[in-house]
Design goal:
Length: 187
């Protein structure tokens, strides 16, 4: 899996419609919120900052040309970092990091939360949350017990009062949906 949802970026650049933006916001809000926290933005102000960042991204993304050698994450960090500095300059109260300290953080690799592993973990975690909403609660629980916790299918079937075959069919449906989401990220 690539780090960047290339197909989503291409769709946003070509035809930035509401469903694509909703998906982009759903995927990247947790990552930007973590970066915000690392940059010392108070939790009470994070939502306002993120709204400013997404507004800026709405204007800038149609001009963005994806280059795998440079990476989307670095570009996103640059946009986010600059917007955070601009936001910080408008604040009248003291914040944990000064503007000088913020400006010193020049690349996404300069903060632990922006590492490749963390980026992937947050993005995949968010995809799991999104896909979970596509299934009834019991279906997701059956999948989780079997596929994530590694419990035997017969135990899971007994717990949920369904057949072992139904347990494996559920796992297959959820995995197919997850594969679809992950494949969409690589297109």
């Amino acid at each position: 899996m690539q780090d960047t949802p290339v197909s989503l970026l291409e769709r946003l650049c070509r035809s930035p419609d509401e469903p694509h933006w909703e998906r982009f916001v759903a995927l990247f809000t947790p990552i930007l919120a973590r970066w915000s926290q690392r940059l010392g933005v108070p939790a009470a102000d994070t939502e306002d900052l993120l709204q400013e960042v997404f507004t800026l991204l709405f204007r800038k993304l149609p001009e963005f040309q994806y280059d795998p050698s440079k990476g989307f994450r670095a570009w996103l960090w640059t946009v986010f970092h600059r917007q955070t500095i601009a936001w910080r300059k408008r604040q009248t109260r003291e914040l944990p990091l000064s503007i000088k300290q913020l400006e010193a953080l020049e690349s996404p690799d300069s903060i632990a939360e922006a590492s490749d592993g963390e980026y992937r973990r947050v993005l995949i975690g968010r995809i799991l949350q999104i896909v979970q909403k596509d299934f009834p609660k019991q279906t997701w629980q059956v999948f989780w017990e079997l596929a994530v916790k590694g419990r035997p299918g017969i135990e899971v079937a007994s717990q949920f009062n369904i057949t072992p075959n139904a347990v494996y069919l559920i796992r297959g449906r959820v995995l197919a949906r997850l594969r679809q989401e992950l494949t969409d990220l690589d297109k």
